[in-house]
Amino acid sequence: MASLKDVGQVADDLEKLVGELRSELQDGPDFAKLTQIADEISEHADHAAETFSSVNETLMSRIGELVGSRGKSRSGQRSSSGGQSREKSKTAS
């Protein structure tokens, strides 16, 4: 899995590519070169989006596991205490 550090590198690459794009536009545009730069920007942006999505899925999965395990332990505690209350009421009758 890619990390947020990798996205930092992608952001640096994007900054460089945007600089190249601006330079190309100012120097008298070569549309083939502009197309190539735009394609590279698109690939880098896609990589960043995939990384964010992967990190998000991992975090949400882990949160789900933690919440699920907490819910199981809490429902177990409720069942035991509920059983004890019923036992006390039977004994009192």
Description:
By secondary structure, the protein is mostly helical. The protein has two domains: 1-44; 59-93. Helix content is 91%, strand content 0%. The protein contains two helices and no strands. Helix 1 packs antiparallel against helix 2 (31-92). The longest helix is centred in the middle third of the chain and has 62 residues, at 31-92. The protein is rod-shaped. The protein starts with a helix and ends with a helix. Mean pLDDT is 80; it is low at 85-89.
Q: Unreliable stretches, pLDDT < 50, 5 or more residues?
A: 85-89
Count of helical regions: 2
User: Could you estimate the helical fraction of the residues in percent?
Assistant: over 70%
Give the averaged pLDDT, no decimals. Answer: 80
The helix-and-strand class reads mainly alpha
* Strand residue percentage: under 5%
Task: Compute the separation of the termini in Å.
Answer: 62 Å
Principal-axis shape equals: rod-shaped
| Largest sheet, strands/sense/barrel | none
Number of strands: 0
Computed Rg:
28 Å
Along the chain, the helix and strand elements come as: HH
Tally of distinct domains:
2
Please outline what is shown here.
This protein is mainly α. It contains two helices and no strands. It is 91% helix and 0% strand.
Relevant terms:
mainly alpha; 93 residues; rod-shaped
What secondary-structure arrangement, pairings included, does this model have?
Layout: H1 4-26, H2 31-92
Helix pairs in contact: 1-2
